[in-house]
Design brief:
The protein is mostly helical. The chain contains nine helices and no strands.
Length: about 170
Amino acid sequence: MLDPSVSPGSFLLRHVLGADLFVKSIAPGHLPFIFAMIAFWTGAGGWVVVMYGALNTIPTDLEEAARIDGAGPFTIALRLKLPLIRKWVAYMAILSFATGTQLFVEPQLVNQASFGMVPDTWSSNQLAFQLAFRYGDFNRAAAISVDLLVIGLLAAVLIVWRTGLFQVED
């Protein structure tokens, strides 16, 4: 995925990052883009399955009525379908955020593939791991873990509150 000569995303690697070699694509300045790309491809399948299921719960009568009233495809998508599946979008946003705060394996894999070009403390989870198991500083590692938990919970509560995820519709 990260080698521009064989990657299906070689266009992005070459034109967005300006990388024509593997070693250039994993330069330290490109790491946020690389990990975002990995996260996208990791979570895309879940989004497709959940959104497909959510869209299939919308009655076809509603879409037909919107078409009869003159609504085009964009209007139907934005004003009919999106409000009806907002709870599923909120659910997936919470899962995506939770996955993003647990970034640990991806930097380690890229580090091994690049022979040490990614720092072993690139993500907060990696830093907590290094503090606990390399330096024996379990208190600071636990503090980082609790901080990540609090940030994740606050983000989830905000999403649930703003979207009405658990409100029962009449």
